[in-house]
Amino acid sequence: MKLTSFGPANTIARAAETHPLTWRLRDDGEPIWLDEYQAKDGYAAARKAFADMSQDDIVQTVKDSGLKGRGGAGFPTGVKWGLMPKDESMNIRYLLCNADEMEPNTWKDRMLMEQQPHLLIEGMLISARALKAYRGYIFLRGEYTTAAKHLNRAVQEAKAAGLLGKNILGSGFDFELFVHTGAGRYICGEETALINSLEGRRANPRSKPPFPAAVGVWGKPTCVNNVETLCNVPAIVGNGIDWYKSLAREGSEDHGTKLMGFSGKVKNPGLWELPFGITARELFEDYAGGMRDGFTLKCWQPGGAGTGFLLPEHLDAQMYAGGIGKVGTRMGTGLAMAVDDSVNMVSLLRNMEEFFARESCGFCTPCRDGLPWSVKLLRAIETGNGQPGDIETLLGLVGFLGPGKTFCAHAPGAVEPLGSAIKYFRAEFEAGIKPVTPGSLTQVATPTMAGA
Questions:
Q1: Which long-range contacts (CB under 8 A, 24 or more apart) does 352-356 make?
Q2: Span 345-430: which CATH code?
Q3: What are the structural domain ranges in the chain?
Q4: Which CATH architecture best describes the domain 31-246?
Q5: Cys-Cys with 136: which of 23, 95, 218, 400 at CB 3.0–4.6 Å?
Q6: Sign of torsion, CA 330 414 104 342?
Q7: Using an 8 Å Cβ cutoff, are 231 and 123 in contact?
Q8: Dihedral of the CA atoms 13, 240, 320, 231 (nearest 10)?
Q9: Residue 133 to residue 279: CA distance in whole angstroms
């Protein structure tokens, strides 16, 4: 899989203006260590933030920029920061980086951490200054061993240079940063489950309220942000609000750029930093090169396994939250997957739902029992042993596991692709239902609210 920043026609100077996340990347893919990072204006934004901006100025700048979370939820970052208490007596605060990138078909944060670890550290340093957080943790997916190695080295380099630790840049501000590798659970991507895991507890989501900004890790005010989100902060502080807003395409309600990608049977699978508002067709045809010879695009997901399927005619949608929302699903992580015409949708959905069922924390009944139920039905349909009413049962589960019906967003994300697959490819599901013959009729088990 290629990790590509920008096209060869871009000069370094031009790329710095249009690709704030990736312009520093090396052609050989090797990590950028401290000396090279600083030679490419690294930590210049941090020095500006410490010397010329108050903590409230940093928060307001990020808020006015319109930066939104890049982990999939898209919550405004400045608003989230503003939820942290203003009470100066609450001087123990934490900043957590959500690097538990376990969404299937998503690898954008991995690239940033492996190749530009100091960009993340600088983003966390500026953010910690704004939030008055004295300690930070990068909660890293345990399988990302290379990222862990590079991050730990970069943390040591920053400490030796006086960019982490005590009295940073002579400001009197202290910030300690630690890399914490998780045990490998998808649910840790939910911020309160991440907090529980960091504390050494079972990774179950917490009831909200209270929100982490009030009661987070070890009961103290806590802010949790995604890797890509934090990596945007230095460029916003360094280049200003107007510049950041100018990066997106006309018509986009989201500002800045986004790491987007395409995988599947495409000619040029990869990852690119592109402006919000680019069409999915440009991403698919101009960057991913379209489908490989001999394959036809059947459908696609815009941003990870937890987003709904879309058809080829939806490729003209703009890649931002509202643009993808107009065609019936969520942008998610922005890393799309092409499904070719050789794939059976029932088998694909059975595979997905097995993953989601296995990764459920088991806390609430609809998710704990509903997802395995969907797997059981999909297995039967896949082998041609589906019963009349099974499709209706699956659609019932899609409703009962939807938004607002479960303790966290795991189940709604799990059933969104299932509902869209039945909507667009119902005939493939119907093909797995046994025909009704005399004497074969059985009672159809349709889910009820009590049973779900």
A1: 352/104, 352/305, 352/414, 352/417, 352/418, 353/378, 353/414, 353/418, 355/104, 355/186, 355/305, 356/186, 356/305, 356/306, 356/410, 356/411, 356/413, 356/414
A2: 1.20.1440.230
A3: 31-246, 345-430
A4: 3-Layer(aba) Sandwich (3.40)
A5: 95
A6: negative
A7: yes
A8: 70
A9: 38
Which residue carries 């990347």 as its tokens?
25
Sign of the Cα pseudo-torsion (234, 240, 241, 246, in order): negative
With a cut of 80, say whether residue 449 has pLDDT above it. Answer: no
Domain 31-246 and domain 345-430 have a common topology: no
Which residues lie across from 270 on neighbouring strands?
262
Measure the CA–CA gap between 150 and 181, rounded to whole angstroms: 13
HSE-up of residue 145 (Cα within 13 Å, Cβ side): 1
Instruction: Give per-residue pLDDT as tens, 280-326.
Output: 999 999 999 999 999 999 999 999 999 999 999 999 999 999 999 99
Choose among 345, 342, 388, 350: nearest CA to 372.
350
Contact partners, residue 87, CB within 8 Å, separation at least 6:
none
Q: Residue 300: beta bridge partners?
A: 310, 338
Q: 432, 346 in Cβ contact below 8 A?
A: yes
What tokens appear for 410 in the block? 């795991």
Rounded-to-integer distance, Cα 172 and Cα 212, Å? 26
pLDDT tens digits for 351-408? Answer: 999 999 999 999 999 999 999 999 999 999 999 999 999 999 999 999 999 998 999 9
**Burial class (CB within 10 angstroms; exposed 0-12, middle 13-18, buried 19+) of 343:** middle
> How far apart, in Å, are the Cα atoms of 394 and each of 245, 300, 415?
43, 21, 9
Could you tell me what percentage of the chain is helix, strand and coil, using 3-state DSSP and rounding each to the nearest 5? 45, 15, 45
C-alpha torsion sign, points 124, 125, 131, 132: positive
Burial of 86 (0-12, 13-18, 19+ CB in 10 A): exposed
Cα of 125 vs its chain's centroid, Å: 21
Q: What is the pLDDT of residue 89?
A: 62
